[in-house]
Amino acid sequence: MRSLKALHTGEETMDVSLRHPETMARNVRRGRQIVRCVGLQLALPAAILAAVFTGIGRADDAGRGSGGNVQAKISYCKDCHGPSAQGYRGFFPIPRLAGQQPEYLENQLRAFIEHRRTNNIMFNVAHALSPAMVTALATNFRDLNPAPIGGAPKQLVVAGKKIFEDGVPDANIAACAACHGPEATGSGQIPRLAGQLYPYVIKELTNWGKERGQNSARPDTSAIMSPVAHSLTRPQIEAVAAFVSYLK
Amino acid sequence: MKRGIQIIKNVPVRIAMLAIVFSAIAVAPGRAESLAVRNCTWCHGASAQGYSPAPRLAGQRYQYIENALSSFHTHKRDNPFSKQYMWGAAANLSGQTVHDLAMYFSTLSPKAADDGDTGRVALGRTIYQEGMPDSNIVACVVCHGPNAEGVGAIPRLGGLESSYLRRRLEQWGEGYHAAAGPPMPGIASKLSADQIEALASYLSFVR
Q1: Are B202 and B124 in contact (CB under 8 A)?
Q2: Looking at the complex, does the CB of residue B150 fall below 8 Å from at least one CB of chain A?
Q3: B2 SS3 class
């Protein structure tokens, strides 16, 4: 994985979200807060991020001309993830794919195949995909923009917004916005969270260390989230999940 | 003699208790009136365990029952037995009665029909638990749950009669409509007759 190679050479410790001029323009004060939080602890993750961000756009070209059955496979994805890929609340929460970062999706599909991320259902699904199909599928959902399906407790949103934007300084938890962006749209291998299903985000954050980064021979970007997921309390997780679930 | 007097003394108390118990039966299960319940169990079986072709209601998710009754009422669910029996049965139910009936039946313990073809169970389990990724058939377990118990408006399938399961799965591909929208019509229409038979057989044994 090219991002991991770059991991060892990257030396940046700056908050990467400051690279986006519009972020600074929108809220300089918030930016300073983010830097304060992030600067405390994120030397290694920031280096990974630096590598991740350079990969943007790579999946873009691979999606074209990948064979006639791409549409059938996309329809298969939507059988579970919803007709507009907005996600679905089945017995298990099925995540929103709409608007998701192609690089994140591609990395996750490969993570299922490589046993970096454990999920029996998605292993079966991903295992049957050719590399070209993985790329084609990953790029497909980027432009979909259905409304979030909602359903999260609205009274948690205010507390979630604060954690998302400011982190939890007392617990050394960085602002989510630092990596996922002020609008939670993600970038590169950092996923979009905006509109993601409330129960799905809760499940991922509470289950992080048991589900992701499971192949010690292939460490991946999921390591960035491990300390954060570990440090968040259940009420904090629910609050952040509620907040992002309503973002458009 | 002493004991006899005790019994006599206790009689009014017991009668009073009985009266309380009986009045509780009439109103307690979500205020479903016993008469309305009897109208259902006439076909669905005295303990609502199903009586072919009427499916088991016991243990079904209440939101699913509500949606089903609503879809009979609006004539959306339009397979032959729905038209023949359920359109009429649901025609004059109030919203409150629909809710009460649904709550009542959802609280009864379901029994498994166990009437599928045992030779097809293995294939059925594979399709249900893992899907058939090469054929773009999703795993049923994701929505219906590890024991086909359902959740919310998604129905419990475990232990339903195999004949009912088979017909419902066939009907999605035959152009009939049901309360549920996507994704079921699309998913079920992809299933072959063999796969449907296997799923129906497997599910009839699940509890």
Answers
A1: yes
A2: yes
A3: helix
- Taking the C-alpha atoms of residue B160 and residue B181, their distance in angstroms, rounded to an integer, is 21
For B31-107, give the CATH class.
mainly alpha
Phi, psi of A150 (to 5 degrees): 70, -160
What radius of gyration do chain A's Cα atoms show? 17
Question: What rounded mean pLDDT belongs to chain B?
Answer: 87
pLDDT of residue A23: 42
Q: Which residues of A touch B144 (CB under 8 A)?
A: 90-91
Task: Express each pLDDT in A1-52 by its tens digit.
Answer: 334 333 333 333 334 343 444 443 444 344 444 444 444 444 444 444 444 4
For chain A, the first-to-last Cα distance in angstroms comes to 31
Residues in chain A: 248
Q: Which two tokens stand for residue B195?
A: 């796969």
A149 vs A67: CA distance, rounded Å: 32
Three-state secondary structure call for residue B155: coil
Q: Which fold has domain B118-205?
A: Cytochrome Bc1 Complex; Chain D, domain 2 (1.10.760)
- Percent of chain B beyond pLDDT 90? 78
> Matching CATH topology for B31-107 and B118-205?
yes
Q: Which residues make beta-bridge pairs with B54?
A: B51
Taken in order of first residue, the domains within chain A and their CATH numbers are 59-140 (1.10.760.10)
pLDDT tens per residue across span B31-77:
555 778 989 999 999 999 999 899 999 999 999 999 999 999 999 99
Helix/strand/coil for A95:
coil
Q: Mind telling me how many Å the CA of A83 is from chain B's nearest CA? A: 7
Which chain B residues touch A128 with a CB distance below 8 Å?
133-134
**Residue B173 is encoded by which pair of tokens?**
């591909």
Cα separation of A171 and A167, whole Å? 9
From the CB of residue A68, how many other CB atoms can be counted at a distance below 10 Å? Answer: 6
In this complex, which of A82, A92, A128 lies closest to B134 when CB atoms are compared? A128
Tokens of A242: 């509620």
Calculate the average pLDDT of chain A. Answer: 81
Q: Which residues in A lie closer than 8 A to residue B130 (C-beta atoms)?
A: 120-121, 124
